[in-house]
Amino acid sequence: MGDNHFTIRLAARNEGIKYEDETGVYRFRVELVDRTWTLYLPGSKGPEYERHELSDGEEARILPRITQFLGKIWYFGFFPRKYDVLVERTAPKA
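^ that's the sequence the OP posted. Answer follows.
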């Protein structure tokens, strides 16, 4: 994969995002309420879905791509819809 090659897909009935680039596979929980997507951090990385805190470099590379993707989704390839996107950090589980 080249430096700018990446894929983003909604997964699990629009409850998750799968992001993949040359460094690996990342997954994040998302939620759509009243035309606003919320992306929850931290996500996971790798095939074992291990909890993963993004480094500064990962955050700078991945989050803008995901927020751009969620901000304008095309339905059936013809109908663009615009959404607000929030990034929210969840507390670690005890």
